[in-house]
Amino acid sequence: MTARVIPVDPFDLVVFGATGDLARRKLIPALYHRLADGQMPDGARIIGTARSALDAEGFRALASEALEAFVPAEALDADIRGRFLNCLDYLQLDVSTPEGWEDLRGMLSTDGRPCAYYLSVAPRFFGMIAEGIGRAGLVEPNTRIVVEKPLGRDLASARALNAQLAEGFDESQIYRIDHYLGKETVQNLMALRFANALFEPLWNARHIDHVQITVAESVGIEGRGPYYDHVGAMRDMVQNHLLQLLCLTAMEPPARFEPDAVRDEKLKVLRALEPIDDPADVVRGQYRANGTAKSYREEAENPDSTTESFVALRARVSNWRWSGVPFYLRTGKRLRNRVSEIAIRFRDVPHSIFPGVAPLPNMLAIRLQPDEGITLSMTVKDPGPGGMRLTDTTLDMSFAERLATTGMRMPDAYERLVMDVIRGDQTLFMRGDEVETAWGWIDPIIAAWQSAPPPRPYDPGSSGPEDALMLLHRDGRRWREIEA
Ligand code: NDP
Ligand code: BG6
What we know:
Layout: E1 12-16, H1 21-36, E2 45-50, H2 56-70, H3 78-86, E3 88-92, H4 101-107, E4 115-119, H5 126-135, E5 143-147, H6 155-168, E6 174-176, H7 184-194, E7 208-216, H8 225-229, H9 232-250, H10 259-272, E8 282-287, H11 296-300, E9 310-316, E10 326-332, E11 339-346, E12 363-369, E13 373-381, E14 390-398, H12 399-406, H13 413-423, H14 432-448, E15 456-458, H15 466-473
Helix pairs in contact: 1-2, 1-3, 1-13, 5-6, 6-14, 9-10, 9-14, 10-14
Bound molecules: NADPH dihydro-nicotinamide-adenine-dinucleotide phosphate (NDP) and 6-O-phosphono-beta-D-glucopyranose (BG6).
6-O-phosphono-beta-D-glucopyranose is lined by residues 149, 217, 236, 340.
């Protein structure tokens, strides 16, 4: 969706870890697209740094290869590519040593423009980089620092990281990325809720029976075994992406669409989450081998691993709006299809006037990926003669189709997020207290696993372990199918 582009002022963006996977797969393509869409101003500069012995030409060659690999061929234009590569520069810098920081200072612009430091490196380097930037006197009021997950692995480490960042930067300068917040449909959830009069009166326990939030992936751990086996689905997905989706679904309307107004409301939701005391409210799973598909343990190269590749849980938000409404969350790898959605199941009609027929309940599904869109299932009369027969149908709003008719492209989350950093807009970034509160809710769940049976096995290509189905069955409900 590139129709209206708000230009930004010239900026310096320093990417630490510019030769790594995230930089090549996401950041460089995202910046290319922003330039192609006319949002990157003349004079904008992207300075890559890493230990690799490259010069500016070498980095441009690496970036050019990244564009070939990760930008669709039809979007690659020789002229735009040339202009983009001209914005790039490179500094060889080992952040674990005191050398090189003065050279970085020498490369930065001196015209008072915004400067963002993007830490696309392992978290153990965050403190060193924050300190190095500070020591070299490179923190000005319009300096920003961007950090990626994992933002800690529990409350204690998240607090330590926040404290480390706070030594050199004000909270208003820290941009903690959860890329789910940059997805178009996630932002659309806020538009749907707060720019329409229709839903808000119904958005509460009186009218909503329950909410299902699903982030299903068909891929496995894709060569990330050493990282993932140390982390698992709860830390990798639930603590951040799924809880953020829950917050946006459950939060009260903020007074304004402004960073702290939105983040205050999300924080209240996190604080209202009831601790999960009943082990039966959480199901963990791990995929096993099936035919030619490898098991999780084989992929992780850890034959005894008890790391979960699937989690389903029942959460409750303890406040007036949501009292008694379960929020069922599930996420997993090697499931039947890649589907991310938030489904709001409305209550049954209080009384059916149609003899012998129970109208189907309304369901509002917000599809994040693939086929981004919104569907509302409704009960209507089955067309034609034969008496009053009812059938269900859906009102469909497909963003994908809408875009196809306009020739526009669905932007990647990183495009939006990187430009928000440059603009200095923190609305779609997590504040330190949100991250800590989320960990505070997750930690006891993970701690209880120490004395619990290992994850339940499930087949690759399935919907997860049987126990996850039971989580809803025992409440007289069922999951929506994981259909692409
Ligand atoms: P990679 O291992 O692919 O890249 C790490 C980068 O850090 C490389 O450019 C490496 O370059 C550089 N580096 C390593 N040591 C040093 C050092 N001492 N001094 C300076 N640079 C160094 O990691 P990713 O790109 O996958 O991930 C980066 C961060 O982003 C991590 O925090 C990760 O958790 C997070 N992340 C990644 C995602 C992804 O899709 N990849 C998704 C979400 C978060 P060199 O060896 O040349 O120094
Ligand atoms: C990342 C997780 O944060 O999100 C990955 O570390 C996961 O394990 C990915 O695959 C999913 O993101 P998306 O945008 O593909 O749904």
